[in-house]
Amino acid sequence: MSQAVVDRAESAVAFLKEKVKGIPDAAVVLGSGVSVLEGLVDSESFPFLDVFGISPSVHGHSGNVTVGRLSDAADAPLVAVFRGRFHLYEGHDWSVVTLAARVVALWGVKKLLLTNAAGGLNKEYHVGDLMVLTGYRDHLNPELAKTGLLPAIAKATTKCSNALSDQLLKVGEQLAKADKEFRPLRQGTYCALGGPNYETMAEIEMLRRLKGDAVGMSTVPEMLAVEGSGTTAAAVSVITNVWREDEPMGGHEEVLEASKMASKRLDQLFRKVLA
Ligand code: HPA
Predict the structure, then answer these.
(1) Residue with the nearest Cα to atom 10 of ligand 1?
(2) Ligand 1 center to residue 183 CA distance, Å?
């Protein structure tokens, strides 16, 4: 990793420490069209440009960090919400794509909730389902430019269950029991591909044979970036489309619409997990 990039994470943390009193109890990264934890109490927002020195270029990612309390209770947790992220397909390198996650770890935030919009590979899934990641496949690591994709395909799924993902699933179960509107959570394996194009049917078939449940273009770098730090990361995919032979894949606008729809349930889930 170049010195400039290390400095960028360090300067972002220095910026946030100067602006924010106290270290947040949790951080959340929001993917395409995902909108949760609006209306934080005593909140302050900072554009990515001021924090990181760069802005995301993808429609549906507003690109700011909001820090505030979850409620007006005196002991309500302090939460940092990163609205938007950087992707490899925007031309950023791995170090930029992991920037927010490294900032979270360096800042000393103990919990990181990652979200993404993803396509459903599992045929039992429906648009708007929420899937907690219990495993992932990394098919976008820059290492693969040297070795080709075969080693990644040959590798087994990486398991990523931890105390935080277990808690998401437990709280999801409670919410589904108490409220018919709250669809039970899914749990499964997320396959990270480079994009920016959506997959061909042949690629979808390959990922299904590899036992993937959802496919997207993010999140895995961020999970890898906090590994071994004091930060525990868990991730939730919003299933914005389900791949079927006889149904054409919509496009980015449909993905944004489906994300919005599921955001209400995700908001309930995160508020209860973080409270
Ligand atoms: N593939 C990859 N990324 C996605 C998809 C998909 O089908 N849906 C939303 N993000």
Answers:
(1) 118
(2) 21
pLDDT of 13 reads 97
Secondary structure (DSSP) of 156-196:
PPEE---HHHHHHHHHHHHHHHH-TTSPPPEEEEEEE---S
Taking CA atoms only, the protein residue closest to ligand 1 atom 7 is 119
- Segments making up each domain of the chain, as ranges: 3-134+160-189+219-274
Q: Report the separation in Å between the CA atom of 117 and the middle of ligand 1, taken as the mean of its atom positions.
A: 6
Helix, strand, coil tally for the chain in percent (to 5):
35, 25, 40
Q: What is the distance in A from the centroid of ligand 1 to the CA of 82? A: 20
Task: State in Å: Cα 216 to ligand 1 middle.
Answer: 5
SS3 118: strand
Is residue 213 within 8 Å of residue 235, measured between CB atoms? Answer: no
Q: What is the pLDDT of residue 256?
A: 79
Question: Which residues in the chain come in under a pLDDT of 70?
Answer: 1-6, 58-62
3-134+160-189+219-274: CATH architecture: 3-Layer(aba) Sandwich (3.40)
98 with 192: CB under 8 angstroms?
no
Residues shown for the chain: 275
Q: What is the pLDDT of residues 194-223, one digit of tens each?
A: 988 999 999 999 999 999 999 999 999 999
